[in-house]
Amino acid sequence: MNALRDHPAPFRPAALEVMPLARLCDRLARRQRILLEREMARLEDLICRVNAAEPGGPGQSRRLGIAFKAFRSRLVAHMHEEAHLVFPPIRRAGGAVGRSAPAIRALRRRAARWRRQHFQVDEAIARLRHLAAAPASPGAAVAPRRALRQALARFERLIHEQMYEENRFLFPRALSGCRV
Ligand SMILES: [Fe+2]
């Protein structure tokens, strides 16, 4: 966990079109860990604070907790699959070069599914953003909601970077058999 502590610029811009695929997998796996272990815990803590600050609210804070649990389980399943079914074979083969046609077809089908899941993740985050944007309950402290909105914006930025790098670089390069 120490490696996951706040870092001012953990993911500098890089030439991802020529980065060796194993290194690209390492970069993506590292950002996955940050999202799952650090950013997700931060969001959960902040949602608990919002709920504590607005116990008798109109239901928005309770819906936030429910939406977050659904989002978390979907994202964990997605990232677990990628960590076990995407990164290891790409690291081993350095891309599609040398793999059998059935293996390439399987990766192509999976990549299409994971792209669809990226859209679903995006929709789930938009739902969270919408719920977090609601004003605090009358008389409740506004700071927890403000902190949650900031944390969500950070989370969204990180996960959009992740999905972009997978969609734009990892899947196409692995499927084209590009070995660098
Ligand atoms: Fe993904």
* Biggest beta-sheet profile: none
Percent range for β-strand residues? under 5%
For the record, give the distance between the C-alpha atoms at the N and C termini, rounded to a whole number. 31 Å
Helical content stands at over 70%
SSE series: HHHH
The gross shape turns out to be elongated
Q: State Rg.
A: 19 Å
Q: How many discrete structural domains? A: 1
Number of strands: 0
Number of helices: 4
Bound molecules: fe (ii) ion
Question: Could you provide a short overview of the structure?
Answer:
The chain is mostly helical. Helices cover 74% and strands 0% of the residues.
Structure in words:
It is a single chain. This protein has 180 residues and is mainly alpha-helical. The protein has one domain (18-176). The protein contains 4 helices and no strands. It has helices spanning 21-53, 60-93, 101-133, 143-176. Helix 1 (21-53) runs antiparallel to helix 4 and helix 3 (101-133) packs antiparallel against helix 4 (143-176). Residues 1-9 have low confidence and may be disordered. Bound molecules: fe (ii) ion. Fe (ii) ion is lined by residues 78, 82, 114, 118, 163, 166.
